[in-house]
Amino acid sequence: MSSILKISDLTFIYQNSKKASLQQINMDIHEGEFIGITGPTGAGKSTLALCMNGVIPHFYQGDFYGSVMVDQKDTVDNDCVALAGSIGSVFQDPEAQIVATVVEDEVAFGLENLNLPRYEMEERITTALEMTGISQLRNYSTARLSGGQKQRVAIAAAIALRPKILVLDEPTSELDPQGTLAIYETLKNLNELYGITVIIIEQKIQYLAEYCSRLVVLDKGKIAIEGPCREVLSRQDTLQGLGVNCPPVTQLAYMLKQKGLYHGEFPINVDEAYLVVSKVLQDKGRFQ
Ligand code: ADP
């Protein structure tokens, strides 16, 4: 797999701030990956997302060291418009992102600047709505949508620009479990069916465990842990020390391990946890 986003020795200090919000970050993200970024509040997650989509250094003043290469483009030399075909962004609050009163117009909004022929705009809107599973909402008023539907409209608007990468900063923080799941299933489809690289910042680590292949944990502006999901989640002591809540299923296995009742791999979803608990009960002769 080739590298689609490469961060080398990135350090960023906001203007008027004494300390670096990001320090010596190195990341290499490959095309088609689904990556989760987590960590405590103030760890630098949002700053990292803003460095990925070029908002930093183009819209925030500060000291920027190192480099961020997005789809072979250096973010220092390419502004957000130039990067839009490579990386799309979705943020926390769906209300703040939506400007149009009708869904179709919202998805068309970013396309207006591209001077595309009418038929291509039409095709892109139709495809983006299909890809996010909201074709039926095309003529709806954006004011009537649920939070989860609004976030899917925001994702559709981002992918209508045909980016290779989607970076999402806590897109489910305002959503209930049903809305959250719909977003993750949408992202899974975009990743698996259309090969879009997904980078998601998330505090609800159980969703990262379920959907991501790789996890990066930030703390105080640095990468504290990084690796395949299961490997990162097995480092419960370190995660707890950082204030990162592990998924309940992993915590359960951790407790069973501490009591000497289980010695296998950490489960990262409910199905795997079921097998762990069945095994423990079987070993104790309580489950046939
Ligand atoms: P997270 O997303 O993990 O909560 P942030 O990237 O928002 O972390 O913040 C990282 C650090 O940068 C924090 O210490 C925060 O106070 C600081 N910071 C964030 N935005 C700004 C800003 N606009 N100006 C100055 N400091 C900021």
Provide a compact summary of the structure:
By secondary structure, the protein is of the alpha/beta class. It has helices spanning about 45-50, 55-60, 80-85, 95, 105-110, 120-130, 145-160, 175-195, 205-210, 230-235, 235-240, 250-260, 270-285, and strands at about 5-15, 20-30, 35-40, 60-70, 75, 85-90, 165-170, 195-200, 215-220, 220-230. The chain is about 40% helix and about 20% strand.
Percent range of helical residues: 40-55%
Label the overall shape. Answer: globular
Small-molecule binders here are:
adenosine-5'-diphosphate
Q: Any guess at the CATH architecture of the largest domain?
A: 3-Layer(aba) Sandwich
Strand content: 15-25%
Read across the widest sheet, the strand sequence of neighbours is 6-7-8-3-9-10
Please explain how this structure is put together.
The protein has 288 residues and is α/β, with parallel strands linked by helices. It has two domains: 3-239, P-loop containing nucleotide triphosphate hydrolases (Rossmann fold, 3-Layer(aba) Sandwich); 247-288, no CATH class. The protein contains 13 helices and ten strands. A six-stranded mixed β-sheet has the order 6-7-8-3-9-10, with helices on both faces. It is globular and about 70 Å long. The model has no long low-confidence stretch (mean pLDDT 92). It binds adenosine-5'-diphosphate.
